[in-house]
């Protein structure tokens, strides 16, 4: 486009028309898939969620009784840190032939790992097995508050709790996180 030049954008007597439609694509599995969708979404998806401002991989997974691992498997382009999550697009939150697995429970139990340490549950998705120190993450806990309390680095925390994401933007509330490991 040139500067200081007039351009015709309409003809006298015509009215611009706008049409908004939501496209549905029916795949070979018979499921109508809304669009736009998250890139690389699995093809056998049968339940969809429209991503809105403020949503995170963890919040979407939790609201749909999925683990973060399941959510990432259904939507691989979101990445382990959830930075690839598209706003205003549909993501997969259900798969043909699967039943969602509840991700959290308010009942706390403990298990004794092979390392002799009693591990409280539920835990962050993918937490390391050599953890010996735990912190209960409330829904208002931030990664920074955990790092400050236990004097650990973000790199250590995300190595021990990979489900929290490399930038710690997928930290789950109402679970236990690892804040120390057996050397």
TrEMBL record:
Matches recorded under CDD domains: LysM
Entry GO MF terms: chitin binding
Alphabetized Pfam families for the sequence: LysM
SUPFAM superfamilies named among the record's database cross-references: LysM domain
Domain LysM: 47-93, 133-179
InterPro entries: LysM (IPR018392), LysM1-like (IPR052210), LysM_dom_sf (IPR036779)
Keyword terms: Chitin-binding, Signal, Virulence
Signal among keywords: yes
Domain of life, per lineage: Eukaryota
Name this protein carries in UniProt: LysM domain-containing protein
Organism the protein comes from: Didymosphaeria variabile
């Amino acid at each position: 486009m040139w500067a200081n030049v007039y351009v015709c954008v309409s003809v006298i007597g015509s009215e611009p028309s706008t049409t908004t439609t939501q496209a549905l694509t029916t795949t070979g599995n018979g499921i109508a898939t809304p669009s736009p969708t998250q890139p690389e979404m699995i093809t056998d998806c049968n339940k969809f969620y429209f991503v809105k401002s403020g949503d995170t991989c963890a919040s979407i997974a939790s609201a749909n009784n999925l683990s973060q691992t399941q959510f990432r498997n259904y939507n691989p382009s979101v990445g382990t840190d959830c930075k690839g999550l598209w706003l205003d697009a549909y993501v997969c939150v259900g798969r043909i032939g699967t039943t969602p697995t509840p991700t959290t429970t308010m009942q706390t139990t403990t298990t004794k790992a092979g390392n002799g340490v009693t591990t409280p549950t539920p835990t962050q998705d993918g937490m390391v097995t050599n953890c010996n120190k735990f912190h209960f993450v409330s829904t208002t806990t931030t990664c920074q508050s955990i790092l400050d309390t236990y004097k650990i680095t973000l790199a250590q925390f995300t190595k021990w709790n990979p489900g929290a994401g490399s930038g710690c933007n997928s930290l789950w509330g109402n679970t236990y996180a690892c804040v120390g490991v057996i050397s």
